[in-house]
Amino acid sequence: DSLLSSGYLNDGIPCHFTSAVVAGVTATFVASPVDVIKTRFMNSPRGRYSGVLDCAKQTAKSEGLKAFYRGFKASCMRLVSWNIVLWLSYEQLKLATQN
After folding, report:
1. How far is it, in rounded angstroms, from Cα 86 to Cα 37?
2. What is the pLDDT of residues 33-73, one digit of tens each?
3. Is CB count within 10 Å lower at the N or C end of the chain?
């Protein structure tokens, strides 16, 4: 809505494309740390971490905050491309069925 109300873009393919990209990048940025910790915790040998928070603490302590965004590019490319296909298709089908 803010893209439309600001006047930067009109309702159409460029707006839907931009929205899909922004949504994909934002979702990846928010979910990536959780996904990294989940993967590390699940793939670790039993007893390595006392819990998920311990896994996050040890990761931050040993590798720094950048470790929480390992694989960000690949995840982002996957989610952004999926969002583009989904939302452009959805909006075009919605437009076609309204006419």
Report:
1. 28
2. 999 999 999 999 999 999 999 999 999 999 999 999 999 99
3. C
